Amino acid sequence: MWKETREREFGNIRPNLFSSRISKSRVSSIRLSNYKEIVSSHRGSVNSLQVDLTEGRYLLAGASDATVAVYDIERATDYDGGGLIAKHKSLFVINKQHEHGHKYAISSAIWYPIDTGLFVTGSYDHHINVWDTNTTHVVMNFKMPGKVYRTAMSSIARSHMLIAAGTEDVQVRLCDIASGAFAHTLSGHRDGVMSLEWSTSSEYVLVTGGCDGAIRFWDIRRAGSFCVLDQSRSQIGRRPPLLVRPMTNKKSSSTAQSSSAKVRAPQKKLANGNALKPHAVCRISSQVKTAKQRLHPGMLSSHDRATGHYGVVTGLKVTEDGMYLLSAGSDSRLRLWDVESGCNTLVNFETTRLQSSKAIQMAVSQDSSLAFVPCMTTAKAFDIWSGQTKCTFRGHYENVNCCWYDALNQELYTGGNDRQILVWSPSKSISDEVDEWKKEQAATIDQDNWSD
Amino acid sequence: MNKKIAELEPSTSRKRTRDKESEPESEDDVESSRSLSLEENFTFSDTLMALRMMRAQFPHIEKVSVEPFVLQSQLYSSIKDRTQVDRELESLRRDKLLRMFKLTTGQDDHAVMFTEDYLNQIERVVRRMEEKQQNDLTVFEWFKMHVIQSKLDTSIGHQELCSLLSLGGKVKDEQISQLINAGLLIRQLIDENMYWFSIPNIGSVLKGLSQGRKELLSFLSRRKYREMMMATLEKKRLRLSPLDMRFHLRDLIGSGHLKTVQTPSGLIVRVAKD
Q1: CB–CB contact A310 B107 (8 Å)
Q2: If I label A304, which of A38, A95, A341, B179 is the partner at 20 to 30 A Cα–Cα?
Q3: Closest-CA residue in chain A for B167?
């Protein structure tokens, strides 16, 4: 590290390169933290973790016993082990006894992306609550038709304040905080929606993964999804080839069309070979565009039955540059999709089993090189491009549900069914700290012994 | 082992023998390989070599006649980089050298079969149906000519199937039932409207596959330290499966249920704890 600092001083390496090298070396040495601990105040499995996006200081956790807690991860509440281990207790806890608290498990707790004054929780009691952080009162309440599996708000949104909610109902609902009402619903899934994420490149694009195995992209300004990911459509390599070889496959025309993923709806709708009503047995050709006029062009995609996974899509994560999407399914496969072409990049992540009954929350490092995925009782760090397991984090006693990567400090927070929130951080050798502490002590003794 | 590699030489000429269908199998294989161009068989990919080797090692089953196929997990066990395997399989599939089938045993099982073997299997089934005096087997011709050549995926929708078959002639529902009865198309629980391509006559082999897996895993789990030397394990015979131990070992190691550890006295196979 000192060599790199010197290079930076001399101007041999640029500041970006310098900082990325330091963070890469820190990330590769992540292990169970020996100087930081979070004292979990939950009596049920931790389902959702998020560090706020503005300051990176407060960790919000939602658990199965209907408790929500916020922890300050920068300042410890007290010290233990002779001042070496920092313990972080929760700043406040909201539980079932709260007058407007949730009654059943909380599946998702997220911060309001603009500041930490509000946070949103979604629970199995069919409600989404918007809380004021300082007074811990419910500001707004939305009732959903089914258990809420996931809520999400776009972190880059400038013109809307919509909460997207995925429930066991087939429709994705958008709730508006500004007006307190539902904005609109997105239909197309054939079963509940277990995971959803907003795109990190466009404030109007939402990605949802359903219990039917389909992954759909929605532009909320239009009806219907403009893209459905199909696991059999694949590309070899990170970027799709420039000249697509003409395949005799019927899907070749659709591949060419769907490569311009975010363009006009009518062309987009033909991106599937099965988009026909069952009563007509006719040749699929370009004339089919004129044949089905009765259906709104945006709703043609509801006939598209392509699946991204052979089971439930349990987790989704869009990389920060918005170019790739990582999806986890109950078929124990992790797939990396190229968002622009809608193809499977065929990266094979070595996972033997993934949790299939509950949704999992994954994390991706800032430069999109590492993916942190909870795999049963461990969390694993995969190299995104080759699919190799870089590191396995064993520490939880039971299944890990969620993980959050804090890019500022290169720390990983994981929450599991064993009610614990574990911190994984780059190693700081204890001996250094002890020396520091001793030096401090020694200094005071010296001062006392100085004679004038 | 060397002998096996020598036997593999003629199989590298797969691409050519497809055109020269008249070439009988009894011909001296080494000679024929010399007459084929080097250019076509110059470079090999790891996956292709592994596929050919495993195809040659496919166990011979007495009662059932099935052409050799390789499971995708077996490929993962022999080649370190799984992404490379996936990508090479994809490019081989696009070149129509092989076909992939989704199996009904377990969640993500796929079988890989060379296209010639698949066509041979279909031939065998058609001949058996002819012997039973089933007439009007034209749908199989249409299937071979139109559907297999153009649809390279593992599944096909009802509409698309009808439209592809109608390139040969008028399609009737009974003909699609014929295809299903022959075992070329099956329906899975995932989606009612989709037909999945399948290898005919493979039912008993699949049953043997899942039972053999269970037997091997339970055998190893019952041992004191849940492990065994690969050399001794290889020699054991499985009671419930017609497929040999090597097939099952490769499959379970590739899918992650078993792992191998190198020790000074050889490889040890151990049950992987998750």
Answers
A1: yes
A2: B179
A3: A283
